[in-house]
Amino acid sequence: MSVRHALLALLSDGPKYGLQLRQEFEDRTGEVWPLNVGQVYTTLQRLERDGLVESEGDGDEGPQRGFRITTEGAAELATWLRTPPDMTSPPRDELVIKVLVALRLPGVDVRDVVQVHRRYVVELMQQWTRLKDDAADDEVGFLLVVDAELFRLDSVIRWLDAADGRLARLAADPPAPPGPALAPRLRRRQGVRR
Amino acid sequence: MSALELRDVSKVYGEGANEVRALRGVDLSVESGALVAVMGPSGSGKSTLLTIAGSLEVPSGGEVLIDGVAVSAMSRNERARLRRRAIGYVFQDFNLLAGLTAVENVSLPMELDGIGARKARVAGMEALEELGLTDRASSFPEELSGGERQRVAIARAVVGDRHLLLADEPSGALDSANAEAVIRLIRAACQRGVAGVVVTHDAQLASWADRVVFLRDGRVVDQTRPPDGPESLLAPKAKS
Lengths: 194, 240
Fold this sequence. Notes:
Helix content of chain B: 25-40%
Number of strands of chain A: 3
Number of helices of chain A: 8
Strand content of chain B: 25-35%
Number of strands of chain B: 10
Shape of chain B: globular
Helix content of chain A: 55-70%
Distance between the termini of chain A: 39 Å
Largest sheet of chain A: 3 strands, antiparallel
Structural class of chain A: mainly alpha
Oligomer: heterodimer
Number of domains of chain A: 2
Order of helices and strands of chain B: EEEHEEHEHHHEHEHEEH
Order of helices and strands of chain A: HEHHEEHHHHH
Shape of chain A: elongated
Radius of gyration of chain A: 25 Å
């Protein structure tokens, strides 16, 4: 999450103090992403160094120092809004790794491992859903954050279900023992390494 | 006493080489006011569990108790009355009768149960009102949107004095906003004291339940633990 751009956004409707920025940030994200005040000031200093914000007053570091966005800052914010975040590189997802390891480990039922994680994720979703249920309709920022969490966790469940199904099918209909099929696969692997 | 209790329930279809064991020794208990979701892959026995819980099918072994009374000890007529009076069903494809208006669809089960047409209509209107459908009462199913049709189906399932609500993939092909509306209504019915069972493969839907039970190959393999309370998600806030 870009604290830098979140602060620029908060400064777009007028100059503000550091503490005020922290408060508004937490209000708008439904207090799901806490921000400590040190983080706010460090980020403001960097933004000032880069010419994206300027401070009001005499350079005093205290809480009474206000900040305003510069034209460069506004341009940077506009560009950032329309730049898709990097979603291309496959993350080495720890959950995926655990399931892959379980697959190789003798004496471990990989479908049981899948179920342990499935239950945990569903429990987490139950907690988010309770928060959503308690929220008022006009807490838009908060509701959007909760929805994002729920959809993210839902995609994890979908992957676990798909993995479970794949493993069940494999167990019901195991592939033929490696014989002639091994040769072309080996060739292909060697090809990749060249 | 549980509103619904399944004790060591099993179900076998076919025989010999064609034998399919759909349920194997399932125990499940749902209290009044609780919503339980049953999750599992297709073929895990979810729908069979629901039809047996609703006494639409007879188990091969074990016992189903509704409000503490064993269904197997009831006569055919008693079972039929139980289904009309105590149990509401919501299906994926709504199953509304095309030739009847929304309110007629909702009040039909009560009329079938011998309740006078006028009284049944009043109860039907009340159920529709609770789901925000008063102005759609005279519309026929084909004049309703998917979300509205499913709301009518829920109204029909909770009308009168029903205290067990059984839903099979109730969000069906609805979009996420309508699906959420449907599960909120089912949960609201449970908060008024109905015991609910929702069978689904949709984790977002299941996450509205008080308890999620996981079914695999006809067995209950796991269930969620009681929640710690949502505060734990926001715990980092307390540290700052």
